[in-house]
Amino acid sequence: MPALKMTTTSQRWLITLVIFIAVLTTAELFDLKFIFANALYRLEGGQWSLKHHFITETIFHEGARNLNLITVISLLALTLFQFFPGNNNAQRRRYVLLLLSILLSFGLVNYLKATLGMDCPWDLRVYGGTKPYFSLWSLNDSPFSSGRCFPSGHSSIGFAWIGLYFFWRKNHPALANTSAVFSLFVGFTLGFAQQLRGAHFFVDDITTAFICWSIALLIFHIGEHHETTDT
């Protein structure tokens, strides 16, 4: 049974990987990310007029970030509480896996942002900035490319919580499905708000969604495999 489950998990991830690569490649080859960003830029009057808007910056950016911090701290407290005597071992494991999944998602996304050096749309000359555009595939080491805009860090506030799907799926499948939908909704909503500000292309959010899904799938697969082995 564990071998079958491992195969199913691998197949699920490989299918997602193929879809992700296809979307990313198509967007790059046909300039879809620029077509979409150009449309938003024109709608805002040839500038990123929503960059500092109260709704996009104060509520969707700063507010969502602060709320996420409070939620993560609350999850940390709940996880530590599971180590008190009398708590269920299986439930403790699930809390630890969820916390690891979320923290690793945030960590990897921010690491890639720092190392890949991709600029935000608002930094590019085509959108009134000062920097030329360099494709991710060019592997350019120009000093111009020193941004922190790929993948999208802000949308990970929603996508990282996809771990809740795996947290609930055994005992509460309906709640698991609701959590997955909610996580994706929040991630893409926050991502779109950042696109309106000129902070990201839509592919940045898709990349973050794939990363967070992959980490949650891997973490819970490893954890549940060890749980099966232990029993």
Structure description:
- The protein has 231 residues and is mostly helical.
- It has a single domain, classed as Vanadium-containing Chloroperoxidase, domain 1 (Up-down Bundle).
- Helices cover 69% and strands 0% of the residues.
- It has helices at residues 2-29, 32-43, 54-81, 89-116, 156-159, 163-168, 173-197, 202-230.
- The longest helix has 29 residues, at 202-230.
- The chain is globular, with a radius of gyration of 19 Å.
- The chain starts with a helix and ends with a helix.
- The mean pLDDT is 92.
A few lines on this structure:
By secondary structure, the chain is mainly alpha-helical. The chain has helices spanning about 1-30, 30-45, 55-80, 90-115, 155-160, 165-170, 175-195, 200-230.
Helix segment count? 8
Distance between the amino and carboxyl termini: 13 Å
- What's the CATH C level? Mainly Alpha
By CATH, the topology is Vanadium-containing Chloroperoxidase, domain 1
Tell me the fraction of residues in β-strands, as a range: under 5%
Give the total of beta strands. 0
Per CATH, which architecture?
Answer: Up-down Bundle
Notable characteristics:
231 residues, mainly alpha, Vanadium-containing Chloroperoxidase, domain 1, 8 helices, 69% helix, 0% strand, globular
What's the arrangement of secondary structure elements?
Layout: H1 2-29, H2 32-43, H3 54-81, H4 89-116, H5 156-159, H6 163-168, H7 173-197, H8 202-230
